[in-house]
Amino acid sequence: MSAAASAREILTRLHEVMASRMHAQGKLDRVVDIVGETLDSEVCSIYLLREGMLELYATRGLNKEAVHITRMAMGEGLTGTLVNNNETLNLAEATAHPDFQYRPETGEEKFHSFAGVPIVYRERAVGAINVQHVEPRRYEDVEIEALQTCAMVLSELIANAELVDGEAVADLDDRPTGPQTVNGLTLVGGLASGVAVFHQPRVTIDQVVADDIEVERQRVYRAFAKMRDQIDGMARDVEFGAGGEHEEVLQTYKMFAYDEGWGRRINEAIDSGLTAEAAIERVQQRTRMRMREIDDPLLADRMHDLEDLSNRLLRIVSGQLGTAATQGLRKDAILIARNLGPAELLEYDRRRLKGVVLEEGSLTAHVVIVARAMGIPVIGRVQGLRGIVAEGDQLLVDATVGVAHVRPAPSLLEAFEARFAKTKERQATYAGLRDVEPFTRCGTRIQVMMNAGLRDDMATLPLVGADGVGLFRTEFQFLVSATLPQRERQTRLYRDVLDAAQGKPVIFRTVDIGGDKAVPYLIDHTVDPDENPAMGWRALRLALDRGGLLKAQARALLEASAGRPLSVMFPMVSEPWEFDAAKAVFEDQVAYFRKSKKVLPESISYGAMLEVPSLAEVLDLLMPKLSFLSVGTNDLTQFLFAADRSNPKLAERYDWLSPAVLRFLQRIAQSTLGHPVDIGVCGEMGGRRLEALALLGLGYRRLSITPVSVGPIKELIRRVDLKEIEAAMTGWLAAPPASIRDELTHWAAEREIEVD
Questions:
Q1: Cβ neighbours for 135, distance < 8 A, ≥ 6 positions apart
Q2: Model-level pTM?
């Protein structure tokens, strides 16, 4: 019997049980028998949430006397864990799981394998259906999908028969009513104020079992056609102009919409006897399972895109179309969502959408790239939002620190509005410095450059008045592509960037991917993943191992820079030979261009990024080969302190103004004295006024920072006398006080220099 036929048989039998006049307990007893027989399972059990505990409600294979006796708390044992986490478990050896707990009254000691699926009602897990075998083995996908189908059918029975706690299936009406503050991760910085709007109302699946499979199949075909038309329309109508990275994101998104494998899996679910809605939901559950198993953040983000499309398809096929975007925003709004796809964000009115708060989300998500291009602040990884926020609640989003204030007190609202007004006032002041060159009080010209990574970022260069782009992150194009970007696409991007710079310098950093910025098409599945990605196979190491990648990028940069100066920077150089090897790849392409009579750049400058502390010990060997050196303070700090900067427990622990960091930076700056090497800093440190003040005192004369920081740093520079700050820094580093941060803050206040 085929998998579809087997699934159809189990669904038909379940449907007959549900339609019978049998009482609820009898139906559950029949369900475990049907599942056990069909899957040839020695044990099948159903647990339901009663009085806050998971109670064994029906079983085939365990001791019947344990029914209604065996109970466990949420999070207790394997069943409690899968219900608490709302996730599927599939274990060849149950005892090896850290949450395994033996219950002697059930007689389950002889069973080794275990698979369990949560029974979900209105997005809440209210029980579980489990199977067990004596022989250790992982269950096949078809068996897990059969359990998921059973769980969907059971959720209807459970709700109708009121078998679980009323509060477990109640809607989320009992939210707190007073002010609340929630914390998350800053994905796109900024301040925003508005009323809470939920992106996606629930789609209620009223019927699980299909009356006519062909009718359901045609419903799905029509829904796919409508969804693809919507995605194609978004790709055509996007407001940011042609060629931006958001366009590449949408192309990847469109690829998912036309994925035949996805449609085939939904068809197979319909073949098993499910309605169109239930089939989409079952395939979506499988996607969620895979997402939980994926450690790689970029692959997980791709799966989020697919889930976003599943939600869209489900709304179309069910006729429950209304998202907040289609209904229209009537006030300034903060969008609330579990996750959000890039296309869905683009549907919103940009005049009304002021900010986004996500329960999930990550720095590499496609929606973040689009939100940044739209200029919308985003906070992610805010847990339990639906239990705190109600539609229409006032929200203040401070995405500079990753905080959202729900139903703020009048005093907080007033303070926030004052801060908003002050921010706008400052922005106006900084905008007035756009065409002013940043000279210090003592007459020294400081280079203030900006960091960029998207084609759209270049539009801000003339707006903020930066001296150029001190760091163009070329990896963004790789991160948003489904496949390795072709050389022609790379060339087009780099040429557009240089055109937009209008003669101002641009430093292109060669691709820094791998580690925490992994891309699926470069993953080597024959080797185990890095245990510590930040210190593993990434950046220049990866590029040198994949010679074709760096060669293609070299040729693209040379072609794009024809007749213009080219500045190339290699990331994560740890020893001089790595710089030599990378430069040799470029010089080989230069030789090829000369031989082919192609137009070469007017000049080529090669530089290195100092992020790995080992490079500081051999700078004397590297210095004669460099045109410029950029210190990457973000990675350098985490390597110096052996502290992962993405770990929230460590994020605030190690201070950029500690003697360890400042002395190291001072030593690097002093190593360049006597060499014609331009030294600067790339990273967040240079964009914070107090830290920038310290860097000026250490001898750094080029800062490359976020565009929004350019105005504030230019204003700071005009207030500083370099001799004074250099003398102060020399004294503090020779005999460090209890807090250099406090001393520097006091020093600035005495001179009426405002800091962060």
A1: 112, 113
A2: 0.59
